[in-house]
Amino acid sequence: QKEVEQDPGPLSVPEGAIVSLNCTYSNSAFQYFMWYRQYSRKGPELLMYTYSSGNKEDGRFTAQVDKSSKYISLFIRDSQPSDSATYLCAMTQGSGNTGKLIFGQGTTLQVKP
Amino acid sequence: DVKVTQSSRYLVKRTGEKVFLECVQDMDHENMFWYRQDPGLGLRLIYFSYDVKMKEKGDIPEGYSVSREKKERFSLILESASTNQTSMYLCASSSWTGSQPQHFGDGTRLSIL
Lengths: 113, 113
Description:
The complex is a heterodimer. Helix content of chain A is 0%, strand content 53%. By secondary structure, chain A is mainly β. In chain A, the strands form 2 sheets. In chain A, strands 2, 4, 5, 9, 10 and 11 form a 6-stranded mixed β-sheet that branches. Chain A has a 5-stranded antiparallel β-sheet with strand order 1-3-8-7-6, with no helix packed on it. Chain B is globular and about 40 Å long.
């Protein structure tokens, strides 16, 4: 079993829909959680960075962490065709770590006009 | 903003050649990483370095080596390129604390013929 599980999709939604992307993990020591967006033929870019449980909002994006369930989510409101990309979750336990991140496989999202 | 620059976007080489992929970061980061990304397999860590002249094997180091002579530069070397090393190669960097996100370059799409 992988440490981080992420449904690869693809996920196809109409423009304006609310999108929910999710990851589950098995290591309860993880404390720092990230979401990356990767456009085709480009490198991943950091979208959201959160610590421990709770919500963080940035514009149309909300990252949610539920450590008790070992479950993280990324919500995209009013989705746009420009949101079409692959979204990767990543996480780490933090202190004492070498800086390595554990990545999900990525979910491919298509937002149709 | 953090900038991670990979020397080539596209590269075509022949089997048996020695191949060098270069990566430079401008944020004085201690940690640097090399990944390969293949469809259906996600990001796989090849090697990483947490200091000049220091290196650690990742999950798939076979057939690769690395060099870090200066803090800002991390090179990936394919000693004798093979067709199964055709892939997208991504370089990333992060600061020394174990909790920080990684910042990626735009990748090198390498084809071995």
